[in-house]
Amino acid sequence: MFRDTPKIVIEDGSSPSASYVMYVRMEDLLEKLKLLNYDAEFLPEFKIKAVNRNYFVTQTNPGEQFYTFTSLAAWLIRKAGKNFEPPQESDDPNSTIALILDYLREINVPIEFPPNKLKQGSGDHAIYVLDNLADEALKVLKFQWRKVEIPPDEPNNEPEIEDDDAELILEKVEEEMMAEYDDEEEDILHVDDITKLYGQNFNDLMKPDEILESKTNREEWQLELERVLPQLKVTVKTDSRDWRSHIDQMQQLRTNIASNLTGTKGQLDKLHGELSNTLDKIRTRESYLNRQLEPILKEYQILQEELSKVKEQYRDVSGGVTERTRIFNKLSEELEHVKKEMDERGSSMTDGTPLINIKKTITKMKNEISEMNVRIGVLEYSLMCARIRDRTQMQEDMNTPNGIAIT
Q1: Pick from 113, 129, 156: nearest CA to 68
Q2: CA angle 148, 149, 153 (to 5 degrees)
Q3: Residue 170: pLDDT band with limits 50, 70, 90
Q4: In angstroms, how far is the first alpha carbon of the chain from the final one?
Q5: CA 132, 7, 50 angle in degrees (round to 5)?
Q6: CB 58, CB 88: distance < 8 Å
Q7: Fewer CB under 10 Å: which end of the chain, C or N?
Q8: DSSP 3-state of 394
């Protein structure tokens, strides 16, 4: 059935082995990715190099690791059956991390760390996220972990071996093993050594209760022995990771270095002597050139000082010229302004436009005065009529007795 518990659990976080848990989880994650066939599906799609077993453990290139982390997480989410757009390098990392964590919360995976821990694209938290996503993808694909089935031992159908023939076979096997281990510094335990180690009790243990008699024909036994003999050869395969092979390699390299150092040391001593002589010649030549060039160098220094003085004088003179040039420019601007004013005044004096404007204004004022006189006359006439009317009404009122009008 599917494994619901992690491969390794550390109860004490301060234990010495706690720092190596990431390596185990990373190897477990890599095996799950291989089960999901990420070599043929994920790598060609995103054009990313294969992930090694320490890729997300140590921080090497945060930008590349973060892009690989988000791309792998998106691919695992799609393998689990949910639509998830592949992230781009220009996307906001916070939004991408938020979408990944939201999916983990949907599948009831506890998130007990801040999202910014995933921005570096490596570490325990990144491996934790990818491992849970890989578990969910395997669950959706209905993958099941099965126990290893160990086949039962096959029955031994070989014929019994007589004591004399057994001793011959043991001696032959022992000789072959000795030939294999001649170059190695190991102690081989022989039958005699076992006898010495356990004493006489070993011989008592090896003695059977009854005398065994073989009923096999000698010719049949010889044929069977010839058939089985090639299979009794012991072959010891050397492992490149074995420390013994490393020691042998180191000893061989040390011997090679010692043998090659004799000739090389003589050549290096000769080269050292030639270099020392060349350096002495260079020092002698340098001192000779210094003595020959000393008067020229002194003359050059004197000329440099004179050049510095001339440059300083030129700088002072240039400063006065600059100040006078500024004053000249200012006076030129004022002169241009005065010329412009004189031209404007001269043009206005010779031009008759102002006089024409004055005449037009006088004519306009006369017309307005005439209109005002007419209005004044009309108002005086209206006022006189009103006064006459009032006076007539007053006389009529005075001529009428007791206020009774005569009709």
Answers
A1: 129
A2: 135
A3: low
A4: 140
A5: 60
A6: no
A7: C
A8: helix
